[in-house]
Amino acid sequence: MYFDAASTAPLHPVARQALTAALDEGWADPARLYRSGRQARMLLDAARETVAAVLGARADEIAFTASGTQAVQLGLLGALTGNRRRGGHFVHSAVEHSSVLHVAERHQGAGGEVSVAPVDRGGRVDPAAFGALLRPDTALAAVQSANHEVGTVQPLGEVAELCAGAGVPLLVDAAQSAGRTDVPAGWSLLTASAHKWGGPPGVGVLAVRKGVRYASPLPADEREGGRVPGYVNVPAIVAAAASLRAVRAEAEQENARLHALVERIRTRVPRLVPEVEVVGDPVRRLPHIVTFSCLYVDGEVLLTELDRAGFAVSSGSSCTSSTLTPSHVLAAMGVLTEGNVRVSLPYGTAEADVERFLAVLPDLVAGVRAPLGLDLPAPEAAEPARSHPPRAEGRAGAGARNVGTGSERPEASERVAHPPRAEGRAGAESEERQATDEGGSAGARNVGTGSERPEASGRVTASGRVTASGRVTASGRVTVIDALGKRCPLPVIELAKRIGEVPPGGTVAVLADDEAARLDIPAWCEMRGQEYAGEAPAAEYGGDRGSAYLVVRRTT
Length: 556
Hints:
Layout: H1 13-25, H2 35-55, E1 62-65, H3 68-82, E2 89-93, H4 98-109, E3 113-117, H5 127-133, E4 138-144, H6 156-166, E5 170-173, E6 189-193, E7 204-208, H7 234-272, E8 276-279, E9 289-294, H8 299-308, H9 328-333, E10 340-344, H10 351-369, E11 402-403, E12 407-408, E13 434-436, E14 442-444, E15 478-482, H11 490-498, E16 507-512, H12 517-528, E17 531-537, E18 547-552
Parallel strand pairs: 2-3, 2-4, 4-5, 5-6, 15-16
Antiparallel strand pairs: 1-7, 6-7, 8-9, 9-10, 11-12, 13-14, 16-18, 17-18
């Protein structure tokens, strides 16, 4: 079962038919005046008009590129170059595709300025916060139509209005939404990618509104309005246009069907699998994408197990082999980056396929977790298939999330009290460092068992806490867990094993040098009803590198 349409969608039947026909009819150079060249040009022009009509643009505003990534990069660089007299300031959201981030890095390296707009826990940009970053010297702003990892739809109408009021051109990356939903108005530049909607790979779209200042960052070329150099792939472009028109015609009915299937996954996975967090906005989202993170699970291992069971899914996990770094999207949202699974359903996905996924997932996750020795709640019994309406989840203004066994996330004053774990010592995976207190007595370094929250720096203050030097003061102790040299999710697993040894109000310092721990330990605290108390240098707790992440036990 192929559940990774957000990466690339299967070739639409209409695209296959159009591609085959265009290989026979549109193989010639469309820039030539002989008959076969004129025929290829007619096919190219018709494809351009079709794409323009679906995207809400004029045909002469559309240029075809070799990929969606190339379209984004050319669009950003061309707009920044064209508006350089206005200034060198660039604004984008924290959850943009990596192609935007790479351009931002290059722009900054060349002396430009970059501002990044944060998102809430649902992955949604706050229009007011975005608008506050716009300045008189802002040359360009960029916001995606919907997020590629969690499916959250961005408030583009409001953002576009603010950009227009400030006179700032707005580039919209519509890779995930083009063909599925209406393209919002107000954009200055728009990009898309054919293989996301069922067209052939190797075709991207760059639309530049008339009147928008744009200067190609590449040497001049007479093709594609001077924006994209090189020979155009007419057969692939024809197939891309035909499939875009076809999926847009099917979108209303198919979106409703996929939305119901995704809602089933969103609702039932937290009930069937313990310690799961469903991420992304539960209401303002694309119909075909759902993402969830499983505590104490390596995402790559889980994806391998799902592949063996016949399911192709993807992951933004902190431990994916391609990067070994946390997903910047999940990190910006402040949610778990470990054990991450993205399910994105292609058109035509059968209900039975989703039911089979829900049937095999609990045992696969349990199998991955089994060697860890964690005492986790038993999953609920399997339920009969049914559709569930969207829930009103999450804190106002902070997105939504599912905690523990799937209940709605409580307010800060009404945290869910999780049952205590029978959590043993970490053994070889973790050791309790010894320290000497100010009175000269030696023992486990357990500072700060009182109820006060440590300072954000991680140094615990006067009432039985750690001094600036990290020494033990008059009362209380801090349990130190050494997870140095271990990649996530191992530091989080060690914390889960040891938290039961700490009395309520007590503090644990987890020593870790994996960057993902900075993200996943606070996220674990949110899920488990514990209190994250900040970060301090590991040296203050006996470590020789890395950081100490402080956790105060709140649940019993």
